[in-house]
Design brief:
Length: 67
């Protein structure tokens, strides 16, 4: 295991961006899990704030016939 003082000092570690502020990480394949969780959690927070308890979602498609 490498100690902080062996890996370039504590200053380097202190200046590293936090994961949630690191756009390179968030946009990388490794950040995908966080992006998926955010797409679930953000609407849930909005529903709680607006006191929405139940929703109905319709899936489907429509086609127009030509001619």
């Amino acid at each position: 295991m490498i100690r902080a003082d062996e890996a370039g000092g504590a200053d380097e570690l202190d200046s590293a961006p936090l994961a949630y502020e690191n756009a390179d990480f968030l946009n990388s394949p490794d950040g995908r899990l966080l992006r998926i969780m955010a797409e679930y959690q953000e609407p849930m927070a909005r529903f709680r704030r607006e006191r929405i308890q139940d929703t109905v979602v319709f899936f489907g498609s429509a086609r127009f016939s030509c001619g």
